């Protein structure tokens, strides 16, 4: 059985303050790139999973909502490879 | 009464908490994160530090340790739990308290003495404080910026779950007294039932005048006082 690869993107929900994003945006503006209206920071994870089909997908969803993201402040999206 | 102080890998205020309870004059024991035995503690302290290196999010990994499974059951059956700094973060990640702690708004680590106002002195954790009393207690954190949705904040206010708010030296609640950008200057909250409290300031670091303040001792005195009065919720 080949491993299934999933990439998980975790982002702050709209409206949640992202001081890191704001600071990065300020740095970009200081560099002279005044086209950048906003920056939101986030993180991503690459998972290899030994489970196929719907069962595997369900497990990944559980991992995302229980551990990789904090549902109070964050949303996640998933992308599958293979 | 007996206090249990949890030690996670990366906890660094566990000995401070232990010592604070010794100063209080009550029994105290350490609880190891890999154990699920609370050793018959009446009160659980989740101490400050950097549990599991603060990897992923502060408190996110500690939540799944064996001891936290027991702490959750203990809290849900009415047991007293106080989370300080990283311990507060663990309580939020565990869902025992509502909301989340974001990175400090100014993006710097904040380590200094600050002032907090006792918003509600009818709780188990503040019963030895005067109404509106101002306490001088140190903070030391990077992720202490309390966040929740507007509706939830209103609920916290209505149900008197906001226990401490950051203020200036004279007790004015304003931006100057807010060290991390927390909504509504929130420094500490309780659950609806009142048996679980989380706070960013470190009362265990302010229990003797030689440390700069002994105001923190009032929190532990409150717990002892409430406990002896039978104010603690009956455990199932």
How many structural domains does the protein architecture of chain A include?
1
Strand order of the largest sheet of chain B: 2-1-3-4-11-10-9-6-7
Q: Quickly name the level 1 CATH class of chain B.
A: Alpha Beta
Average of per-residue pLDDT values of chain B: 95
Short description:
The complex is a heterodimer of chains A (82) and B (236). Chain A is an alpha+beta fold.
Walk me through what this model shows:
The complex is a heterodimer of chains A (82) and B (236). Helix content of chain A is 34%, strand content 30%. Chain A has 82 residues and is α+β, with helices and mostly antiparallel strands. Chain A has a single domain, classed as Phosphoribosylformylglycinamidine synthase subunit PurS (Mth169, Chain: A, 2-Layer Sandwich), CATH 3.30.1280. The longest helix of chain A is centred in the C-terminal third of the chain and has 16 residues, at 53-68. Chain B has a single domain, classed as Rossmann fold (3-Layer(aba) Sandwich). Helices cover 22% and strands 25% of the residues of chain B. Chain B has helices at residues 14-24, 66-76, 86-94, 150-158, 217-228; strands spanning 2-7, 27-32, 43-46, 80-84, 100-102, 110-118, 134-141, 145-147, 162-167, 186-190, 196-199. Chain B starts with a strand and ends in an 8-residue tail after the last helix. The model of chain B has no long low-confidence stretch (mean pLDDT 95). The interface between A and B is medium-sized, with 10 and 19 residues.
């Amino acid at each position: 059985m080949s491993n299934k690869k999933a990439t998980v993107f975790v982002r702050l929900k709209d409206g949640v303050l992202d001081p890191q994003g704001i600071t990065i945006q300020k740095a970009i503006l200081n560099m002279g790139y005044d086209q950048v209206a906003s920056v939101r920071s986030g993180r991503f994870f690459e998972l290899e999973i030994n489970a196929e089909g719907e069962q595997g997908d369900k497990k990944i969803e559980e991992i995302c909502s229980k551990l990789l993201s904090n549902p109070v402040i964050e949303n996640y999206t998933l992308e599958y490879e293979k | 009464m007996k206090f249990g102080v949890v030690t996670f890998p990366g906890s660094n205020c566990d000995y401070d908490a232990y010592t604070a309870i010794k100063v209080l004059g009550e029994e105290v024991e350490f609880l190891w994160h890999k154990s699920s035995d609370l050793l018959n503690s009446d009160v659980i302290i989740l101490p400050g530090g950097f549990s599991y290196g603060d990897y992923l999010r502060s408190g996110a990994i500690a939540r799944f340790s064996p001891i936290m499974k027991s702490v959750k059951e203990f809290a849900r059956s009415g047991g007293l739990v106080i989370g300080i700094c990283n311990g507060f973060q663990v309580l939020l990640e565990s869902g025992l308290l509502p909301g989340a702690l974001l990175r400090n708004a100014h993006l710097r680590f904040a380590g200094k003495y600050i002032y907090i106002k006792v918003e509600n002195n009818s709780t188990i954790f503040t019963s030895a404080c005067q109404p509106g009393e101002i306490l001088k207690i140190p903070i030391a954190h990077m992720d202490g910026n309390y966040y929740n949705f507007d509706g939830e904040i209103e609920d916290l206010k209505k149900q008197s779950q906001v226990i401490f708010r950051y203020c200036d030296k004279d007790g004015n609640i304003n931006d100057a007294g807010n060290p991390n950008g927390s909504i509504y200057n929130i420094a500490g909250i309780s659950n609806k039932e009142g048996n679980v409290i989380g706070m960013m300031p470190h009362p265990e670091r302010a229990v003797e005048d030689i440390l700069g303040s002994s105001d923190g001792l009032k929190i532990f005195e409150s717990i002892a006082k409430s406990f002896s009065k039978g104010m603690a919720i009956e455990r199932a």
